[in-house]
């Protein structure tokens, strides 16, 4: 590879020549000839300087743009978070308005509460509320939402309460079909469906009939919605009919509920 050192030496050697050419005693023709020789080197030096300045300015613009982009991305994330929060508040507001409208249709003492936890065991269907005895909650209070019956309060602490859902096998409620007026007991079996038992063979119940609370037992007021009959069959003993019910309440989506004081609350 050919060495470039002679060009650099020539470039630095041209500096004193330039100084000499500034002398007025040097003829114009000699000065012009000399400038013609060293002009390419002067142009190269100027180009190198311009490239250096442009590169420095370009680097400055790059880092400024990079910094500004990071700030803009952070601001965008902040705005997106605020949009999500606003939408969530709007959804919550709609739920609470609906719950309040339903609450005003109920008689007796009513206490609204939020769902803050769920039972982790697969064989129990319970949830935890953010209110307890200090807020007026009592054991055996009915728990409902606008869609229908949720369950009843199983245990009460000072600031929290545990609710057994209607889906739990130990949760039972007296019911009546809305059209045929057939009475029975609705219980959970751990699945998303409910099971209505002790229907008489001549009850006249039909599929798609609505099931509501009968008021028998004293915990749940009469007329609260349970669900819709999906199928009907005979019990194994052949003496009664049984029906599977599709509940109106979406239990896995519960966030706020209303607790109703009953005659059995204590």
Give a brief outline of the structure.
The chain is α+β, with helices and mostly antiparallel strands and 266 residues long.
Description:
The protein is 35% helix and 28% strand. Helix 1 crosses helix 2. It has 2 helices and 12 strands; from the N terminus they run ααββββββββββββ. The chain is an alpha+beta fold and 266 residues long. The model is unreliable at 1-10 and 25-31 (pLDDT under 50). It has helices spanning 5-21, 28-103, and strands spanning 110-118, 126-129, 142-145, 148-156, 161-165, 172-177, 183-188, 194-199, 210-213, 225-234, 241-247, 256-260. The termini are far apart. The strands form 2 sheets. It has a 6-stranded antiparallel β-barrel with strand order 1-2-5-4-3-12. A 6-stranded antiparallel barrel has the order 6-7-8-11-10-9. The protein has 2 domains: 1-83; 106-266, Thrombin, subunit H (Beta Barrel).
